[in-house]
Amino acid sequence: MKITFITVGKTEDAYLKEGIEKYVKRLKHYTRLELVDIPELKNTKALTEEQQKSKEAELILKKVTSQDHLILLDENGLEFTSVQFANYINKRSVTSSANLIFVVGGPYGFDQSVYARANDKISLSRMTFSHQMVRLFFVEQLYRAYSIIKGEPYHHQ
């Protein structure tokens, strides 16, 4: 199983890049992880929020096949503890041959076409985080999930 993490825009702050790289490097011991940055749209002042979401949706959905399991990181998604998230990842890796694709949308969220294609929605928190911070939080939680699955001492409960 391969995990793909798609984000709209790129991480610019050096301290966040460093943290993301740290956990991506650690994750190589557990899974194949691909980070995909979809470029932010240009000249968006002439576009409505819906038009922007629609254009981002086209770019996101081009990266997804019919066999992929698409999970949106969305404020209205399921909330998990770290152990529950580890169980979710473990179940998906054992019961499915589909690749997991996690997606963080653009500044206005997801277009209806992306919601329609999604298999699941997960919320990292009820709080709102910057898109750059979500990237770090997600890869850390993914690393934590694998350390829980393997029974390693990273996670304390």
From TrEMBL:
Belongs to the RNA methyltransferase RlmH family. This is Ribosomal RNA large subunit methyltransferase H. GO terms for cellular component: cytoplasm. Specifically methylates the pseudouridine at position 1915 (m3Psi1915) in 23S rRNA. Keywords: Cytoplasm, Methyltransferase, rRNA processing, S-adenosyl-L-methionine, Transferase. Homodimer. It is an enzyme of class 2 (transferase). Its EC number is 2.1.1.177. It comes from the Bacteria. The keyword ATP-binding does not apply. S-adenosyl-L-methionine binds at residues 73, 105, 124-129. The keyword S-adenosyl-L-methionine applies. One of its GO terms (molecular function) is rRNA (pseudouridine-N3-)-methyltransferase activity. It catalyses: pseudouridine(1915) in 23S rRNA + S-adenosyl-L-methionine = N(3)-methylpseudouridine(1915) in 23S rRNA + S-adenosyl-L-homocysteine + H(+).
